[in-house]
Write a structure and sequence with these properties.
Layout (H helix, E strand, L loop, with lengths): L3 E4 L1 H14 L4 H16 L10 H9 L10 E6 L2 E10 H19 L1 E10 L5 H9 L3 E6 L19 E8 L2 E9 L5 H10 L8 E2 L5 E2 L2 H6 L1 E2 L5 H16 L6 H10 L10 E8 L8 H13 L9 H13 L1 E4 H9 L4
Parallel strand pairs: 3-4
Antiparallel strand pairs: 1-12, 2-3, 4-11, 5-6, 5-11, 6-7, 8-9, 8-10
Helix pairs in contact: 1-2
The structure holds NADPH dihydro-nicotinamide-adenine-dinucleotide phosphate (NDP).
NADPH dihydro-nicotinamide-adenine-dinucleotide phosphate binds next to strand 6, strand 7, helix 6 and helix 11.
Length: 339
């Protein structure tokens, strides 16, 4: 059997749509989730592309997540939009709340969009980029499942708690950075386990609390915050803003709900996510020029690049060359078409 198969982006799109709908997702939700999956493949974020489709499917099959959920959008105050995801996945809830959040941010200079009761299996740059594309600065963060020990501890409490930031640019795609506030995304450890690679020191402890570079031992143990106590503090902020503020579950609460369903599904239950959106025109008109002067100074130095540039380069290439998918994963997804 071939090690990998080459798929066009259209192949990815149709396979993802077919499998998600066959397993209980509505067409409208499948269209949005498939866009996330396809964009992740196009941009080379394979840990959040087709690799996540079995997780979307398993969490619908167990009944923990509702693939047909219709998000409920509320005008929660002059600068606030609140979306109840109704136990559906995040991206459809974000798409539902986006128009009101953009309108508020543009008319008032700043707005926040809070999502609750959602499952989050996706890469956050997909979401942040949407707001950067319409000229807004976007800071977003999300809770996930409980995989990470607080600094100094050895029991899972925080999630991998991703954070993403988008900054609009004149005539160019936004600069977007996006990362787990754990020392690595969990998907990176899962991919290392699948491919038989070791992981760097400092990413995880094994189940006995000892440092490990073995991805299988790390998946049984706990992940660590990035940057020691500094990352630990950022994780506290992510939990408070994305779950405490919006009404979603803290990661340890989400984990208790996942465990109640047998603990085998991917993604959190009733998680939370926050978007803080700023229209930079409110402060002064020269912002976009100031952005470029900073970026030019950074890029003058050999060895530098802007966050997001790797993805944009992959995106340009994959549009014509397609993407590589491990053959075993491709077969696993094909086998899910029967529902
Ligand atoms: P990475 O460490 O791969 O990347 C972090 C960021 O740094 C990216 O924006 C990347 O840009 C940028 N970057 C990397 N190298 C450089 C460099 N040399 N110079 C400048 N910028 C650089 O991210 P993670 O592994 O932590 O996270 C991977 C994904 O997992 C994210 O998309 C995140 O949203 C997702 N995730 C989702 C969770 C969920 O619950 N849904 C939980 C945790 C993570 P570039 O992309 O261009 O390389």
């Amino acid at each position: 059997m071939a090690v990998s198969v080459t798929l066009s982006l259209e192949d990815v799109r149709s396979l993802s749509t077919e499998v998600l709908i066959a397993n209980g997702m509505s067409q409208a939700n499948a269209d949005v989730i498939t866009d996330v999956v396809t964009q992740a493949e196009a941009d080379g974020t394979h840990s959040h592309g087709l690799f996540r489709v079995p997780g979307y499917v398993s969490s619908m099959r167990s009944g923990r997540m509702d693939g047909k959920a219709i998000p409920e959008v509320s005008d929660a105050g002059p600068g606030l939009v609140s979306v109840d995801s109704k136990n559906g996945f995040s991206p459809p809830a974000i798409v539902a709340g986006k128009p009101m959040a953009i309108e508020k941010a543009k008319s008032q200079g700043i707005a926040a969009l809070g999502i609750r009761n959602n499952g989050n299996l996706n890469a956050l740059w997909w979401e942040a980029e949407h707001f950067g594309n319409v000229g807004l600065i976007c800071l977003t963060m999300s809770t996930s499942q409980s995989f990470v020990a607080p600094w100094g501890g050895d029991k899972a409490l925080f999630g991998t708690d991703p954070i993403a930031f988008a900054c609009p640019r004149e005539g160019k795609p936004p600069m977007v950075f996006d990362y787990a506030t754990s020392a690595s995304a969990r998907g990176e450890i899962q991919v290392a386990a699948r491919d038989g690679h070791s992981i760097p020191e400092g990413w995880a402890l094994d189940k006995d609390g000892n440092p490990t570079t073995d991805p299988a031992a790390a998946l049984e143990g706990v992940q660590l915050p990035f940057g020691g106590h500094k990352g630990n503090a950022i994780m506290i902020m992510v939990e408070l803003l994305s779950a405490g503020l919006t009404g979603g579950n803290f990661c340890f609460e989400a984990q208790e709900q996942v465990d109640a369903f047998g603990g085998h599904d991917a993604g959190p239950s009733n998680a939370g996510q926050i978007f803080i959106l700023i229209d930079p025109k409110g402060f002064h008109e020269t912002f976009l020029h100031r952005v470029e002067s900073l970026f030019e100074r950074i890029l003058e130095q050999d060895g530098t690049r802007l966050p997001g540039d790797r993805r944009y380069a992959n995106r340009a290439r994959s549009a014509t060359e397609g993407v590589e998918c491990p053959a075993a994963l491709h077969q696993q997804i094909l086998d899910m078409r029967a529902g």
